Amino acid sequence: MGRQPCCDKIGLKRGPWTVEEDHKLMTFILNNGIQCWRMVPQFAGLMRCGKSCRLRWINYLRPDLKRGAFSEIEENQIIELHTRLGNRWSKIASHFPGRTDNEIKNHWNTKIKKKLRLLGINPVTHQPLDKEQDKNELENSNSQNEQEKVNGKFTVLEESKGDHINEVVEKAMSSQSEISSVHLINNYEVMSRNMDMEMLMTSIENGTSFSFQGSFRPLGSSSVGQWVQSVDSLMCWDGIDYID
DNA sequence: AACGTAAGCAACCGCATATCG
DNA sequence: TCGATATGCGGTTGCTTACGT
């Protein structure tokens, strides 16, 4: 014989949690810890399945949760980790104490994907975006009578992106003397003002994060318009090739 | 003010893997 | 070792809120 079934679904409550349910779950876990999720609702007096309790605790009730918006640094780190790990949200979340996989996944799907597209980067492959392909994706994801609206928005965003990047490139070119070097890191070319290679190599050896000030663009993009400013970006990787 | 649409997010579903008896 | 179940993960759904007309 194996284990007992997770839960009897008949009669179990579903949908949003009430304040009272949250209080019961939190009180129970803080007093007793988690031995077996299947037993938690039973002992805590909840008409929920263990799976639902686990999710509620991990994504909402855990006292060590870090709430609030994602910082620019966190977003850049998520992008870097996604380049290496793909949609392995729990692995990505393990690099962010207090953040949940669900939170990061939601943020990726609602914010970062759009941001990358605006920067001309395919959010799936992290390669320079084939505009025609992206247009097709947009066409597929929107009904025909919405297409005119989408194209309208896209034009505006492309213009604003251009302004931003021109500003970045001008700034970078005008302060050429401050640029210490250009490095090739994973799939990105990184133009840095303060990259300390010794510190970088140490961080790689130790598997820790590394921050720098500068700009980056996807490897293989020849256009200067692909440069993206990344001030005080925090990057974390497990492999590196670089060129001076 | 009312309605429609989009965005954000919490929660659920189903599958893969780990674990137990 | 094997079958049954628990757990964890990623994809998806659907509700709520914000925004635009």
Describe the structure.
It is a single chain. The protein has 244 residues and is α+β, with helices and mostly antiparallel strands. It has three domains: 19-61; 72-141, Orthogonal Bundle (Arc Repressor Mutant, subunit A); 148-235, no CATH class. Helix content is 49%, strand content 11%. The chain contains nine helices and four strands, in the order ααααααααββαββ. Strands 1-2-3-4 form a four-stranded antiparallel β-sheet. β1 (181-185) and β2 (188-192) form a beta hairpin. The longest helix has 31 residues, at 144-174. The protein starts with 18 loop residues before the first helix and ends in a 9-residue tail after the last strand. 19% of the residues are buried. It binds a DNA duplex (21 and 21 nucleotides) through residues 1-6, 14-17, 36-38, 50-52, 54-56, 58-60, 87-90, 101-103, 105-107, 109-111. GO terms for molecular function: transcription cis-regulatory region binding. It is found in: Nucleus. Residues 128-138 have a biased composition (Basic and acidic residues).
Describe how the helices and strands are arranged:
Elements: H1 19-32, H2 40-44, H3 50-61, H4 72-85, H5 89-93, H6 101-118, H7 131-141, H8 144-174, E1 181-185, E2 188-192, H9 197-206, E3 210-218, E4 228-235
Antiparallel strand pairs: 1-2, 2-3, 3-4
The protein binds a DNA duplex (21 and 21 nucleotides) through helix 3 and helix 6.
Q: How many structural domains can be distinguished in the coordinates?
A: 3
Q: What is the mean pLDDT?
A: 62
Following the backbone from N to C, one meets helices and strands in this order, namely HHHHHHHHEEHEE
* Alpha-carbon distance between the two ends: 63 Å
Note the overall shape: elongated
Instruction: Please tally the helical runs, counting DSSP H or I stretches of 4 or more residues.
Output: 9
Instruction: Enumerate the strands of the largest sheet in spatial order, edge to edge or round the barrel.
Output: 1-2-3-4
Radius of gyration: 23 Å
Given as residue ranges, the uncertain stretches (5+ residues, pLDDT < 50) are 1-8, 137-198, 200-244
| Major β-sheet profile | 4 strands, antiparallel
Helix/strand class? alpha+beta
Question: Percent of residues in beta strands?
Answer: 5-15%
